[in-house]
Structures are given as structure tokens and as C-alpha cells.
Amino acid sequence: MPEDTRARQRTGAGLGILLALALAAVLLRAFPDDDRRKADDCAPHTVGASSADDRLTTEFARYGDDATRADDWTGGDGTHSVRLPDGRLLWLFSDTYLGQVHGPPNPVGESYAWRDGTAPLVRNSAVVMRDGRLESTLPAPLFPDPGPHQWRWPVAARVEPRSPGSSERVLRVLLWVRTAGAAPWVFGVPTATEVATLSLPGLRVESVVEVLDQRLVQDPSRRVLFGTTLVERGGWTYVFGGDDGQAASRPTSHAYVARVPAGGLGDPAAWEYWDGSAWAARARPGAVLGDGRRTGVGSAFSVVRRGGTYLLFTMAAGTRGLTTVTSYWACSPTGPWHGPAKGFTPALPPGQVAAYNPQAHPELSDGGRLVLSYDVNWLEPTGAAAQLNRNVSLYRPRFVTLRPAPKV
Q1: How far apart are alpha carbons 305 and 283 in whole angstroms?
Q2: How many other C-beta atoms can be found within 10 angstroms of the C-beta atom of residue 206?
Q3: What's the sign of the alpha-carbon dihedral 15, 16, 20, 26?
Q4: Average pLDDT of 82-88?
Q5: Residue 274 and residue 272: Cα distance in Å, rounded?
Q6: Which of 91, 188, 189, 315 is deepest in the core (most CB within 10 A)?
């Protein structure tokens, strides 16, 4: 073989190796760590069976109806939970009723426990559970309003190192900031995502930092708030969020995902957002699920990991979303997400009510079981307060037990 041919071959081989290495570097940056998995790590999943978890539902009814104190939790929504290092379980709620509950009958003669119309309503609360029994409500609101006509709704939380590599552990709580607005924003205009740091074991709020300001996004329905659910894997915390498409009368909203190294939730500079093709800091998030019609998520949803498979639970699209929980599965937080599955309809009390905010509670799940909560509220916002006061049992979380399994 002529010498110049050999030289060209060596040069071509060298360029090929360099291009392969460069491509590998790009792929390592673009895709999540768990995308580099064995093929058998991930499998399609479905919900095989569901049943009411009366024990948990009844415990919240017992605590909410307890008349021994007049300043604790009697009902709320936005249900989230986190296991603390000492074994306690902290339950986080958004809009919360406090005050005294009176036994039946109510003032109109119905056989419901009730509260007075002057009962305090606060924007967030936290309730401590020990050994399966609710014990106390932390002074509420736990997270003060950030400004006039604004409030904070707590969402997902996790215990993590104070900073990457630190031996000290703190509780980090994701917060949604919303601002009062006119219709269709009767539940507030999405404004920002924040992270609160709480001490352990005292649960004292040490700081609140803003990680994503959405005020410059002109269309409120396109603003993304993160924290509806968290999933941990491979040294990363994957933080899921959504826009408010349903408030703008679209059948579904879109889901998004960010990631943060362990110990970095409270550091805005540590956050990376999936922009549709790669992870990037300060990027405009790109949707990982949702076409705005048949596929997508509700105002809040939950993601859990079962081995190499990610499962997402949300209310169904359109009017079915008032009563039906559906699911999707994926092999990566960034998708592609497959579904929606057939779904199931959890029990609802009689009346003009709807279910929303299905949230998984892995810390209460074992043996293949998955505990899922869902919130209940009156459908008509203008008359909701009166209805919730005349029957305090309406505005409390309900629980079901699911058995997700590989699809056969």
C-alpha cells in the first residue's frame, strides 16, 4: 500500500476517533445519567389494582374533627409529605382551614360536622405525624406571604445535605408563589418558584430563596412553576413542574423537568433545566409531556420511580379530569412519556365536587404497594367556602393504595 494512502487512513481514523469522542461528550451532556441504562432496566407499567386506604383517610378525619384545640388544621389541599430523619412524617398543605369544628348537625340541620364561616383560612400549613398518628400543626402560616396580594403554596420537599458533601442535613421545601388576579386566574397568577430551608429537627424556617422568576413571561398560562414532585436518582434530584394551560381553558397542561445535584436545591445556580434537547442553566424549560389536547398533566401531578421505570400520575384530560386519575410511564425523566393509561376513578363524596392533585407517598409504600392521595373541593369557586364550612369532611385528603406492575 502506498505510504500516502496509509497516512490518509491514519488521519481519517484519527478524525473518526475525535468525532466519536466529541459526539459522546455531547450525548453525555444532553441526556440524563439514567438514559445510559441497560435495556432491561425499564419496562412498561400499568396500575393493576386500586383500593381505598381508609386508615389514612380516617386519621385525617379524626385529627380535623378534634375540638380540643382551636388553632390547628381542620382541612386543606395541596397534600404532600416527607419523611424526617427522626421518623416523623411532615404533611404539607396549601390553602388550610384552622379553627374550631362543631359536631353535627350543622346550622341547616344536616348530619355533618361543621365550622363557623369566620374560621381562619391560611395559605399554607404543616402537620406532624408520628407512628401513623397526627400530633400537631406547626404555627400557620408556616411560610409568610412574600408581598401584598401574593402567597406561597408548599409543594414537594426532601431532606438533603445543607450543601453538596455536607454532613449536616436540612429540610428543603419547594414553594409556588402566586399573585392575586382576575378570571381565569381565580387561584392566582403563577409568579415564581422558591425553595425554603428548614432546620432539623426543629423545623424552623431559616431562609427562602427564589430559583425561577416567571414574571417576565407575558402569557401567564405559559409560566412554569417547579416542585409538584421530586424524584432522586444517581446523585441528582429531578424536579418536575407544569404550566397553567388548564386555567386558560386548554384540556391539559404541559410537564417540565429540572435537575439539581444532591444538596443543591437551595442554590439557584445549581439548577439545570431540560430545554427539549439538553440540560442547561437559566434555559427556557422545554415540555417533556403534553400536546395540549389528549396528552398532558393537570394542575399538579406526581412521579415515582420503580426500578428503571418512571411512573407519572395525573388527572385525565378534559372533563374526565374532574374524577379520573390516569398515568404515564417513561425510561427517563425527560421522556418520551407513554400513555395515557386507562385510569381509575377514586371515591368521591356526594355533591358538586371534583378530585385533583394526585400525589404519591413512597415513604408510606412498601411490598409493591403505592399510596396515593387526592384532594377534593367544591366545583364552583364562588360558593366553595360555604359548602366546605357546612361539611368539613369535604376539604380533606383521601387515600388509595395502588399496585403498579410491569405490563404483560
Answers
A1: 26
A2: 13
A3: positive
A4: 98
A5: 7
A6: 315
Q: What is the pLDDT of residues 207-223, one digit of tens each?
A: 999 999 999 999 999 99
The whole-angstrom separation of Cα 373 and Cα 19 is: 50
Angstrom distance (rounded) from CA 281 to CA 272:
4
Of 165, 140, 166, 161, nearest to 151 (Cα)?
140
- Exposure string over 14-37, b if 16+ CB within 10 A, otherwise e: eeeeeeeeeeeeeeeeebbebeee
The pLDDT tens digits for 252-261 are: 999 999 999 9
**The overall pTM is greater than 0.85:** yes
Phi, psi of 235 (to 5 degrees): 80, 0
- Which CA distances in Å does 249 have to 27, 205, 274, 292, 313? 38, 37, 26, 10, 21
Residue 393: name the closest of 103, 153, 70 by CA: 103
- pLDDT at residue 40, as a whole number: 56
Phi and psi, residue 54, nearest 5°:
-65, -25
Q: Could you tell me which residues come within 8 angstroms of residue 23 by beta carbon, excluding any fewer than 6 positions away? A: none
Question: pLDDT by residue (tens digit) across 11-60?
Answer: 444 433 333 333 343 333 444 544 444 445 899 998 877 899 999 999 99
Superfamily of domain 31-406: Glycosyl hydrolase domain; family 43 (2.115.10.20)
Residue linked to cell 422558591: 194
Grouping H, G, I as helix, E, B as strand and the rest as coil, residue 201 is coil
